[in-house]
Amino acid sequence: MPFPIVRPRRLRANETIRRLVRETSLSVDDLIYPVFVTHGRGVKKAVEAMPGVYNFSVDTLLEELAAVDELGIPGIILFGIPRQKDERASEAYDDQGIVQQAIRAVKEKFPAMLVITDVCLCEYTSHGHCGIVENGCILNDPTLELLAHTALSHARAGADMVAPSDMMDGRVGAIRRELDRAGYQDVSIMAYAAKYASAYYGPFREAAGSAPQFGDRRSYQMDPPNAREALREIILDIQEGADIIMVKPALAYLDIVRQVRDRFDHPVAVYNVSGEYAMVKAAAARGWIDERRVVLETLTGMKRAGADIILTYHAIDVARWLQEGAGR
């Protein structure tokens, strides 16, 4: 029936009615907080390109995570900043590496907090690539062994979930076999299944010191124009044993998220990446946007597109904003 019988505005008349008919809701339960951990004590080094984000030593990280625990954010994903880098990313799979130290400390102080670890080599290699390099080429198959060793070292330290982000072919299967062989069948895998060679990663590379020293990562990360390829990558990761599948970045790839949600029954994660975060922070600092409203609208859009899990540097602020909203 046409107007005036049908009036959609009736269901927008006040906040209570809007809450009643709201189709998509963002919750603290949707959030994972990415954190960077480095060697030393008393370290809380600001990342210039990401206001409000820091490189923490283990002791200051535990102070930061007190807020995560209090707000009920389910978990974190750890990225390590090694003391030294080399051609074979030795600290990535060292049982005394910085991520391994952090896992043990976090699980001791916050045993119920979900600890996810990024499994990649780029932060640990002297050349900044996500695999073994020979004659200027990133070698796929020899890299799988190092990735599997890294995941196993994280599991031994107490990680609940590992998240391979390297985009080497076959890495999920290699990690699953290594974990199962060592008795860690219950450690789950969140695969960066559709990770694009994106311009949105710039600020992260400052935080992690992981910019490649030659070339780029387009030979292993996905080409941004491709959608069908993302579905093929996801099928392969599921077949190899991925428990959760991720699309990264989030904002420019919500069409991919929607296709993934419609096609697969696995939990779907998205990464609200550093460039997305930095743009909001820069505009908010200049008074051009309302940071709170923009962040909540953006993350709700990711949820509406089909994401079950959102990795975001905004997690602490979002949890507080949601808490304040619930108290009104």
UniProtKB/TrEMBL annotation:
Alphabetic keyword roster: Heme biosynthesis, Lyase, Magnesium, Metal-binding, Porphyrin biosynthesis, Zinc
One example of a Gene Ontology biological process annotation: protoporphyrinogen IX biosynthetic process
Enzyme class name: lyase
CDD domains named in the record: ALAD_PBGS (cd00384)
Active site (UniProt): K195, K248
SUPFAM superfamilies: Aldolase
Residues the record lists as binding 5-aminolevulinate 2: S274, Y313
Matches recorded under Gene3D superfamilies: Aldolase class I (3.20.20.70)
Name recorded for this polypeptide: Delta-aminolevulinic acid dehydratase
Gene name, Swiss-Prot/TrEMBL: hemB
